[in-house]
Design brief:
The complex is a heterodimer of chains A (about 300) and B (about 240). With about 300 residues, chain A is mainly alpha-helical. Chain A has helices at about 1-30, 40-55, 60-85, 90-110, 125, 140-160, 165-175, 175-180, 185-210, 220-235, 240-260, 265-280; strands at about 120, 130, 135-140, 215. In chain A, about 75% of the residues lie in helices and about 5% in strands. Chain A has a two-stranded antiparallel ribbon. Chain B has a single domain, classed as Rossmann fold (3-Layer(aba) Sandwich). The chains are: A mainly alpha (about 300), B alpha/beta (about 240).
Chain lengths: ~300, ~240
């Protein structure tokens, strides 16, 4: 029972973060047909901004807010500087560009800040735990569940109720025709990057607070997971990104919770085997389109 | 020129080395309905797509007194040109309502237009919250036309309105177009059902291999031997 409670708590908190990250990737994929591997570096950047805010004595909430906004603005600048010049290039060129941006930012963090991880001091009230039954649940986890779910609900409203929400969903269906609706392509793309960056910001803050540190290569693992999540859900599908996030989280946490210690070194291998099985049943992802042209 | 709403001059379109359209000159007057005929690959759809700026072209396109050659699509749409693309191209994961509202400019007040369209197309009222991918072909065509009307166009370009529809549904679509014509809306209709569209249109152009082979009053073309030869198997 206790392990079940902690399983569910872990599943939701990690799944929410994965969902936010994968949504960030899916939004960009919808408008550009690009998997932005520099998405992880937006998380890292958010982490450093959060650290700077805390170290300079800002109130915690303000540091968090500024960090998230910094994620959004950086994403817009990233599009402007790196992706706009190659917008009409092939998918492979865009992908290479995203790797280049990712590497560049990692090197900048390593040389400009430090190659080592920096501890991020979170306020004491966040470091305590609550007891549910016999299991201890940290407040950081509760916060990450609440924030993750709130962000998903807010996104749902945004996608269902707002003009730009419709435009991004429409772009996922048929980008060319969105232009025919009078939507300016470059504005839609900037908007998508802003949203994607804000999502990376929220995920980045949650990630950094849970780990308690930030380092230059921090973004790689979560963005790889988010990529897998997006593929499981169906590339470009926004619903799929959320569902995929919770599926991958369910697999990872289940293995982490119940796998015998002797098999634990094979955890990632088992995770990816399960992912491959899912993809062999749903070759285009669970919510994927049948005829996927974008790369 | 003065009463001409749309004029294309020497419009040429290439896909790589392949020339799809060379030097076509079209004219549409205010409130006029023009049919654009031709076999598959004649360059009809390319012409419509080039006019709204979805594909690059050479030559010039003049609309409502402004040179819109090479202008971005969103600008062309905002000037009052709207395209119902071939195959409807609705956003299948968006509801009918969302498809329609996305068709209007972002800050436009469209309540009256929206109500007016639902009055004309009562079937859509029942389907407003349904995702459009689940609609029948006829319903999708109606939504596609309604969506294109949400930007309050002066000229509506319609690519194959009857494609894939049962005859009774084609009647319904043409009834809608007839209603719209009464409001003074000008149209270019690309259509495979030649007889149907010639009975409907004021004038027509027939394209062949990327060129305009024939033009004239629709009523004249309806009885022309050349049209009969090409479209009715030489009767």
């Amino acid at each position: 029972m206790d392990s079940l409670i902690s399983y569910v708590v872990n599943l939701i908190s990690l799944g929410g973060t994965y969902a936010l990250l994968a949504l960030g990737l899916a939004v960009i994929f919808s408008v550009l047909g690009l998997i932005n591997f520099a998405h992880g570096e937006l998380m890292t950047l958010t982490g450093y901004v959060l650290l700077a805010g805390i170290l300079t004595g800002q109130p915690f909430w303000l540091a968090v807010l500024v960090a998230i906004i910094a994620g959004g603005i950086s994403a817009v600048l990233m599009e402007f500087a790196a992706f706009r010049p190659v917008r009409n290039a092939s998918g492979a060129t865009l992908l290479m560009t995203s790797f280049a941006v990712s590497m560049l930012l990692q090197v900048l963090f390593q040389n400009g800040i430090s190659p080592r991880g920096q501890a991020v001091p979170v306020p004491p009230w966040l470091t305590t735990s609550l007891s549910i039954g016999n299991s201890q649940i940290s407040k950081v986890q509760i916060m990450s569940i609440v924030v993750g779910l709130l962000a998903l609900v807010a996104l749902k409203f945004f996608f269902d109720r707002s003009y730009w929400g419709w435009a991004i969903r429409a772009a996922a269906d048929d980008f060319e025709i969105v232009g025919l609706m009078g939507v300016k392509a470059s504005r839609l793309i900037s908007f998508a990057f802003l949203l994607s960056g804000l999502l990376a910001g929220v995920a980045g803050v949650l990630w950094v607070i849970q780990r308690g540190s930030v380092d230059p290569l921090m973004g790689f693992k979560p963005v790889l997971a988010a990529f897998i999540v997006a593929v499981i859900g169906g590339l470009g599908s926004l619903t799929g990104a959320v569902v995929g996030g919770f599926i991958l989280s369910a697999i990872e946490i289940a293995l982490q919770t119940w796998l015998p210690a002797s098999v634990m070194p094979y955890r990632d291998a088992i995770t990816y085997t399960i992912v491959v099985i899912i993809l062999s049943i749903f070759p285009n992802g669970i919510f994927g389109k049948r005829d996927q042209e974008k790369v | 020129m003065s009463d001409s709403l749309l004029t294309t001059t020497d419009l040429s379109i290439s896909y790589g080395a392949v020339k799809a359209v060379h030097g076509s000159n079209l004219k549409v007057k205010e409130g006029e309905v023009v049919a654009l005929l031709g076999p598959n690959g004649a360059g009809k759809s390319s012409t419509l797509r080039a006019i709204v700026g979805l594909i690059k072209s050479r030559g010039s396109v003049n609309f409502a007194g402004e040179d819109i050659t090479g202008a971005p699509t969103e600008h062309i749409v905002s000037m009052g040109l709207s395209l119902v693309p071939e195959g409807r191209r609705l956003f299948p994961n968006l509801t009918v309502r969302e498809n329609l509202l996305l068709g209007a400019p972002r800050k436009a007040k469209t309540d009256d237009l929206f109500d007016d369209l639902l009055q004309r197309l009562p079937i859509l009222r029942e389907r407003l919250n349904q995702v459009s991918g689940t609609l029948s072909g006829g319903e999708q065509q109606q939504v596609a036309i309604a969506r294109a009307l949400m930007s309050r166009p002066k000229l509506l370009l319609i690519d194959e309105p009857s494609l894939g529809l049962a005859p009774t549904l084609v009647d319904a679509v043409y009834q809608l177009l007839a209603d719209l014509r009464k409001t003074g809306l000008a149209m270019i209709i690309v259509e495979q059902e030649v007889m149907r569209v010639l009975k409907f249109a004021d004038r027509a152009y027939a394209m062949s291999a990327g060129e305009i082979a024939l033009e004239g009053r629709a009523a004249d073309l309806l009885v022309s031997d050349e049209i009969k030869k090409v479209y009715l198997g030489g009767a």
